[in-house]
Amino acid sequence: MNVMAQQPAAPGRLLKITEVVRETSLHRATIYRRVAKGEFPAPKPIGGGRVAWRESDIEAWKSNPTDEAPH
Predict the structure, then answer these.
(1) pLDDT-derived band of residue 12, with 50, 70 and 90 as boundaries?
(2) What's the CATH class of domain 12-63?
(3) Which uninterrupted H or E stretch holds 46?
(4) How many CA atoms lie within 13 A of 47 on its CB side?
């Protein structure tokens, strides 16, 4: 069994949409719809037209997904 796969992600990581989908079990369209409504953390621009989510924002949302998204 892969020991690396069992270790938690390093704090402060930036997550791509595919990682956010995997972490939350939400569909990509649902994530963006909830971002637009303020019900999910918004991604941050990281340059070159790309965006990423702060892992800490996703973890905070996962601890209470019915609250408003952290700003």
Answers:
(1) confident
(2) mainly alpha
(3) strand 44-47
(4) 1
Q: Tell me whether residue 61 is exposed, middle or buried, using C-beta atoms within 10 angstroms of its C-beta: 0 to 12, 13 to 18, 19 or more.
A: buried
Backbone conformation region of residue 44, classed left if phi is above 0, alpha if psi is from -120 to 50, else beta: beta
pTM reported for the whole predicted model: 0.76
Instruction: Give, in order, the Cα–Cα distances in Å from 3 to each of 6, 7, 53, 71.
Output: 5, 7, 25, 34
Region 51-67 average pLDDT: 92
Where do the structural domains in the chain lie, given as residue ranges? Answer: 12-63
Residues paired with residue 28 on neighbouring β-strands, in sequence order: none
Please, how many CA atoms are within 13 Å of residue 51, restricted to the half-sphere of its CB? Answer: 10
Which of 60, 8, 65 lies closest to 31, judged by CA? 65
The tokens describing 1, both together, are 């069994």
